[in-house]
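Sequence in, structure out. Go.
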Amino acid sequence: MPQVWSTTREQRCWVHKTANVFDELPKRLQPEAKENIHKIWMTSTRANAEKSFDSFIATYEAKYPKATQCLAKDREKLLEYYNFPAEHGSLCG
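Output:
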């Protein structure tokens, strides 16, 4: 179990999360889903990311609930980087 300091906030990796979501989607939908996932983490504001996140869930939830549950369960950890100033670095280091 990793040691966690009281001020440390966990952030999830979008690459790995995207792969996990794809495991629950048919291959034919993956290119479109990838574009929609990129709309979440590539936007410059948390507000826009939240809107794109909601849109992704609304688009796929009815037919692919496992895919949307996989994404939604880590929502806060995936969006954690929006809590830091941009000058602290990019998403990919």
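Check: The chain has five helices and no strands. The first helix runs from residue 14 to 22.
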